[in-house]
Structure to design on (550 residues):
């Protein structure tokens, strides 16, 4: 027989020299010590082994998810302050940045989280070869995340599928996304991230072709795709772009890590070995391009992005995956590590007040006050007198409803029933609150992404509801057309300032209907000086259309 043997004589090959795909530089993160308990060093086969208890893993995870829902990195806060000090920033840029700094100051009190969407718990661990645990690391880390959500005023956002179309909130924000890798020597290193739905939804994979790999074509391609990010995920963004990847999933994993600045210490040039690297020149080109778009920090201006990371990866010769993603203004990630010396967590900024200007500035221009307790026809007449971009201060009653509540109301219409009167008589605010702390009128209660409700608008306005909508981000053409047809308005509120809204603007919260939906129930809230801008008016004008986002 001429069939090859199972183990043919090996042909000589050169010695293998391994090059890590992600050769990161030294870790310069400032850490604080959480505890020295639950760890010890033992000899195993003549080697010092770090033995880590289940409780040490749980405690680190709980501390991490507590911190990242209340504190931010100093660098992020400094970038917000830089907007206030930039003469080229628009009034709206400065208004939003100032609101974010006030929001950070309130959240740092440890009671109200910075955003009502307290995120999916994401944990990445890198376990050294000389680290021993009981083997149930995922469960211990997930338990710590769960405990943070149960013990603090955080929202449960995870829903479990009971069948293909029936879902139920898990009521503890589980499951967490936990990934553990074997890497390193005598330490266990972590990144913890709370990823909100708004920013997670702005993660995009494009399967391009190698023909795009010229400077002009790549920049034109990226400009078009960056515009699709819109403003729904609460800019200014930390924008991450990844070009290449040995697979689609690696490309998108790299996007997430880059958006958290986890890959900042990569080399700045490639090699024949195929290592990942940062393309610093393109980072600056893309940043300048985002500043020229005019989108700004949600309502026009320069600061669509704080910064840009561009990572170049090796690829299969026939493939060119390109990934885009953002970390939003709730920039929530923290590093942790366990060594023989203790359990450590990255030191975040506990005193954000130092980044506030000494005297509150008059930011954002003239403000028009709107009484929401007028009849709806009078609210509409008042709004109709003002152009898009007008800054508003809303006081009175709003109804809160988002995805699940909208689906319930649509079922009524499809059964031939009318919309409830409360939905016709008051503006609808798209939001889902975090838990209300003791002594507070409201938990963190910022706007959710408007686009998810786009498909309901024409049907609801035709039935007399949704005539004034309040949320964040740009909307589809169908919403603009519905508002022109039915005489409605869409008002944009500041995404990412949920603690500030709860502390200063929301005075009363009560459930109106569907309490079984949890945070997605229909609520009635009383607001005072609630900030908003006219985005779409009853004449078909759309602020975001002017920026090619409509």
């Amino acid at each position: 027989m001429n069939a090859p043997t199972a183990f043919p004589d090996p042909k000589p090959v050169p010695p293998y020299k391994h090059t890590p795909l992600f050769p990161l530089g030294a870790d310069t993160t400032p850490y604080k010590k959480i505890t020295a308990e639950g760890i010890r060093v033992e000899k195993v086969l003549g080697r010092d082994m770090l033995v880590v208890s289940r409780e040490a893993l749980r405690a680190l995870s709980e501390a991490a998810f507590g911190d990242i829902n209340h504190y931010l990195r100093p660098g992020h806060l400094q970038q917000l302050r830089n907007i206030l000090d930039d003469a080229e920033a628009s009034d709206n840029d400065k208004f939003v940045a100032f609101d974010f700094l006030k929001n950070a100051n309130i959240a740092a009190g440890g009671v109200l989280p910075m955003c009502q969407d307290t995120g999916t718990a994401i944990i990445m661990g890198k376990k050294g070869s000389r680290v021993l645990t009981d083997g149930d690391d995922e469960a211990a880390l997930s338990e710590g995340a769960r405990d943070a959500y149960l013990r603090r005023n955080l929202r449960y956002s995870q829903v479990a599928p009971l069948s293909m179309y029936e879902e139920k909130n898990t009521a503890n924000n589980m499951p967490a996304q936990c990934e553990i890798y074997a890497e390193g020597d005598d330490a266990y290193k972590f990144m913890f991230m709370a990823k909100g739905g708004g920013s997670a939804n702005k993660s995009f994979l494009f399967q391009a072709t190698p023909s795009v790999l010229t400077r002009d074509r790549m920049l034109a391609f990226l400009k078009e795709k960056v515009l699709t990010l819109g403003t729904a995920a609460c800019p200014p963004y930390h924008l991450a772009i990844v070009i290449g990847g040995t697979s689609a999933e690696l490309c998108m994993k790299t996007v997430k890590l880059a958006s958290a600045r986890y890959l900042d210490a990569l080399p700045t040039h490639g090699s024949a070995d195929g290592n990942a690297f940062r393309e610093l020149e393109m980072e600056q080109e893309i940043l300048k391009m985002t500043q020229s778009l005019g989108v700004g920090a949600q309502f026009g201006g320069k600061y669509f992005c704080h910064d840009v990371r561009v990572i170049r990866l090796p690829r299969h010769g026939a493939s060119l995956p390109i990934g885009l993603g953002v970390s939003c203004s709730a920039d929530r990630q923290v590093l942790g590590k366990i060594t023989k010396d203790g359990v450590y967590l990255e030191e975040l900024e506990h005193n954000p007040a130092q980044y506030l200007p000494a005297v509150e500035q008059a930011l954002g221009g003239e403000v028009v006050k709107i009484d929401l307790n007028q009849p709806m026809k009078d609210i509409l007449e008042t709004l109709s007198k003002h152009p898009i971009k007008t800054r508003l201060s809303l006081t009175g009653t709003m109804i809160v409803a988002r995805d699940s509540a909208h689906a319930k109301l649509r079922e009524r219409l499809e059964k031939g029933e009318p919309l409830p009167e409360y939905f016709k008589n008051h503006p609808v605010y798209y939001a889902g609150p975090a838990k209300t702390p003791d002594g507070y009128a409201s938990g963190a209660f910022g706007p959710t992404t408007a686009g998810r409700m786009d498909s309901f608008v024409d049907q609801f306005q035709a039935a007399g509801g949704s005539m004034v909508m309040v949320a964040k981000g740009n909307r589809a053409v169908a919403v603009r057309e519905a508002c022109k047809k039915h005489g409605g308005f869409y008002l944009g509120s500041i995404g990412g300032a949920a603690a500030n809204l709860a502390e200063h603007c929301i005075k009363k919260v009560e459930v109106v209907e569907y309490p079984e939906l949890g945070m997605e129930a229909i609520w009635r809230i009383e607001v005072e000086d609630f900030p908003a801008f006219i985005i779409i008016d009853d004449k078909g004008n759309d602020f975001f259309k002017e920026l090619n986002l409509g």
